Amino acid sequence: MMKVGIIVQRYGKDVLGGAETLAKNVAEKLSESGFVVTVFTTAAKDYITWKDEFKTGESILKGVLIKRYSVKQERNIEEFNRFSEKFFQTEIKDRDEERWIREQGPYSPDLIEGLKDSEKDIDVFIFFTYLYYTTVEGLKAVSKPAVLFPTAHDELPIHMSLMQDVFKRPDSIFFLTGAEMNFIRQKFNPRKGMDLIRTGVSFSESIKRGLFRNNYTQYFPYILYAGRIEAGKGLETVFNAFREIRKTRLVDLVLIGKKLMDIPDVEGIKYLGYISEEEKLDAFREAILSVQPSPYESLSFTTLESFSQKTPVLVNRKSEVLYEHTLLSKGGLSYENEQELIDGFETIYEDKKLKKKMGIDGYKYLMANFTWDVVVDNIKKSLDRLVKNN
């Protein structure tokens, strides 16, 4: 019975985040498949502050043993952002990259020591997301076979010099998309294994129709954005395009997720914050389309959620991952600027047959590539190979 150690910066049923959700799903699915799974994580719940909110020590969630360690240094996000901005403006040779990783956090030397102490009881380690202290230092701490699930895209931190070691140390790297794999191959040319694993998704097939509209008195047709509402997500272009759309179309723009930026006071823009999972999926199902404007995505779970409800997507073409989803699925359109976003909306809004076909094609793409049976089988084969060869 293989013993797997999973390392991720945050973990828990109330922890939100792409890499964190991926780690939790993989941990639980491997446990259900007969693996002995131990998660090494911090006591932090919020990635903004890294403040200890969970109890340190051991606990069990859905058959998975969790070992939580204290974060020794909380983060002031405004101070970190100022430091980070100055850091990336500095010439590479003059940067203190080790300090940046500590400040990025979550800084938990106890977790790193915990990995060393537990290594004798683990056959293979899987590290989730390249970006944090727990991965950068954790990969150095273990000698057993190590896998990295980087959830990577082209952003400033990945170009730091120390990332060369981060991407050359793993015995295998697991990827969510072909675009991510190609980017890492070109950037780092890893000497060891690379596997296109993707991720599994599972959504309820029996959500009550009208749940979202009734609970939130949503009468008009609407465009849906789900995700963090923050600078850097490309929402400014969406807001500007919606101003123009609203001049001729009686539609709303519905936003759900955590609000980290100001939302313009424009008629038809509705911010709802967090809603239940069932309400969210019904919101996807009833939308004209969902929009994903981020130029930086490693997977885009919300795009897959949209496909699960047979709703087309309108995505930022600057994100190779999002563009790949639309090309392979034929489940939506892409744009590069405000006018193309408006044109894409008009195309889907006007052509009901096209909208329906895109929705069906997106759903077929999801079912063919992102089921847990396929993903877990691929992970098993890769881990068996790694352990056997080491």
Record keyword descriptors for this entry.
Rossmann fold, globular, alpha/beta, 6-stranded parallel sheet, 2 domains, 390 residues
Structure description:
By secondary structure, the protein is α/β, with parallel strands linked by helices. The chain has two domains: 3-200 and 371-389, Glycogen Phosphorylase B (Rossmann fold), CATH 3.40.50.2000; 211-368, Rossmann fold (3-Layer(aba) Sandwich). Helix content is 43%, strand content 17%. The chain has helices at residues 18-32, 77-89, 97-104, 109-118, 133-141, 163-168, 178-188, 211-215, 235-248, 277-286, 301-308, 320-329, 338-350, 352-369, 372-389, and strands at residues 3-7, 36-42, 57-61, 64-69, 124-128, 146-149, 172-175, 193-196, 222-226, 252-256, 269-273, 289-292, 313-316, 332-335. It is globular and about 65 Å long. The model has no long low-confidence stretch (mean pLDDT 95). The protein has an eight-stranded mixed sheet, sandwiched between helices.
Which structural class fits the helix and strand makeup? alpha/beta
Looking at this structure, what is the CATH superfamily of the largest domain? Glycogen Phosphorylase B
Instruction: Write the H/E string, N to C.
Output: EHEEEHHHEHEHEHEHEHEEHEHEHEHHH
Which residues sit in consecutive blocks of at least 5 with pLDDT less than 50? none
End-to-end C-alpha gap: 16 Å
CATH third-level topology of the largest domain: Rossmann fold
The largest beta-sheet arranges its strands as 3-4-2-1-5-6-7-8
Number of helices: 15
Q: Kindly state the number of beta strands.
A: 14
User: What would you say the CATH architecture of the largest domain is?
Assistant: 3-Layer(aba) Sandwich
In which range does the helix fraction lie? 40-55%
Q: How many domains, as an integer? A: 2
| Chain-averaged pLDDT | 95
